[in-house]
Specification:
Number of helices: 11
Largest sheet: 5 strands, antiparallel
Structural class: alpha+beta
Strand order of the largest sheet: 2-1-5-4-3
CATH class of the largest domain: Alpha Beta
Order of helices and strands: HEEHEEEHHHHHHEEHHH
Distance between the termini: 50 Å
Oligomer: single chain
Shape: elongated
Radius of gyration: 19 Å
Helix content: 40-55%
């Protein structure tokens, strides 16, 4: 792999931490490990994997935010995952220009990607090494046997339902259906939709690892029930399609009532 490509990427202003995971060797962390011990880093890697497992297979990039920072997750070939932590200083244009070069470089030798990345990236100091402390709670929540329901996993399930429904109605109609079926709860106004029918967080105080109260979780479920009810007027047997095909067991538990 080309050392300069990796250095150019890691030296981008605004990148505060990176991690590379392949599910086989020990994950490599840079800019994160200064505040997390090895056990916490491994827990974080497992938490990210759980997030990945709730996203559609054709999603190769997704992001969420917490504590004023972005976490950008990029799925590479053969189960390799790149996690990038970034502050608001990160230039979208610069990041978009350098990322494809990095992905190509990493995928040239995926069997040794983590080891080589560790060798090169380990010599580079990030601008803000405190970012890891802000995501410690994510690793603790994601790997807890009985963890509280958090916003990020609910959004991933909602996006999966949107993608499934878009196959029948198209993205624009799905967006309109979500909007028209939103129940009267001011808190739900924080959930906005883009043109791809994917949910975004409007309020920066609500983040991917924000825990939901029982009342907030119920509002989400009511919204989903309303969405499914409207969808069933257009799509034949839509409720059963959602239960049997659109969502996995975990996603059903997040969005549907137990009786479903």
């Amino acid at each position: 792999m080309k050392r300069q490509v990796i250095q150019n990427f890691l030296n981008l202003p605004g990148i505060t931490g990176v991690a590379l995971m392949d599910g086989r060797s020990r994950p490599f962390f840079s800019g994160i490990e200064t505040t997390l011990d090895s056990q916490q880093c491994n827990a974080l890697a497992q938490g990210i994997q759980q997030v990945i497992d709730t996203t559609p297979p054709d999603f190769d990039t997704f992001c969420f935010c917490f504590s004023g920072r972005q976490a950008l997750v990029h799925k590479l070939k053969r189960g390799v995952t790149l996690l990038v932590l970034a502050s608001e200083q990160l230039s979208v244009e610069d990041y978009g220009a350098v990322l494809p070069q990095l992905k190509t470089t990493l995928e040239e030798d995926l069997s040794n990607a983590v080891a080589t990345f560790r060798l090169i990236a380990g010599t580079i100091t990030h601008n803000n090494s405190s970012a890891g402390s802000e995501i410690a709670s994510l690793s603790q929540i994601a790997t807890s046997p009985e963890h509280q329901i958090v916003c990020g996993e609910v959004m991933a399930a909602l996006n999966q339902l949107s993608d499934f429904t878009s196959q029948y109605l198209g993205k624009m109609m799905v967006v309109n259906t979500w909007k028209s079926s939103r129940i009267q709860a001011d808190w739900l106004e924080q959930f906005q939709l883009d043109r791809s029918a994917h949910f975004l967080l409007k309020d920066s105080s609500l983040t991917a690892n924000s825990g939901l109260t029982a009342e907030q979780h119920e509002w989400i479920k009511q919204w989903v029930r309303s969405f499914i009810s409207r969808g069933s007027k257009i799509i034949r047997d839509f409720p059963n399609l959602v239960t049997d095909q659109a969502l996995n067991e975990k996603q059903r538990s997040l969005l549907l009532d137990p009786k479903n």
